Write the structure tokens for this entry.
Amino acid sequence: PSGKEAYVRTSSLQIDPLGMLRTGSGMPVLGNGGPIAVPPASKVEIGQDGSITIRGSGQAANALAQVDRIKLVNPDTKQMEKGLDGLLHMKQGQAAPPMDANVSLVSGFVESSNVNAAEEMTSILSLSRQFELQVKMMRSAEDNDAAVDACLVELRDILRRDDSDADLAKLIAWGALCSTPSSAGNCVRARW
């Protein structure tokens, strides 16, 4: 729309009623001399080098004529930016890149994703399970800390009492009580 050159990595091409070659979004495709106009033809072929060959209506099968060549470029991606229109543009002040004979065009293919969905889903599930395991381990460590703290408070209280003979039996019973995880919570939690 702005009249400046823009680029696409992939596009479905079509010929409009006026014979102009356009992208799927309706933008004109540039060739050697500007926008490409394709005369009425019974067959249109686009080669890997971007050359557009036609067979005119009513002409023999071997009567092929090259109309133009799509401008294929290999710009430095650091000098480009993606515009709001979804097209790639050269950054402000950068010159349009020249045609590059090493760039090829593949017809009839769709560019595939560089992400394997099954692998990524498996990886996400694995990470989720590892996270859950870490959370459970942290909760278990907190529970153990609370149980040990409660047992130490109970031990402190026993050692502060004066009747050491009577408390020795209580201390032995306390050790048995606090040594099992299921009953360790019975001790009172407090800080020294």
Observations:
- The chain has two helices and nine strands.
- The radius of gyration is 39 Å.
- The helical segments are 117-160, 164-178.
- Residues 44 and 182 are 81 Å apart (CA to CA).
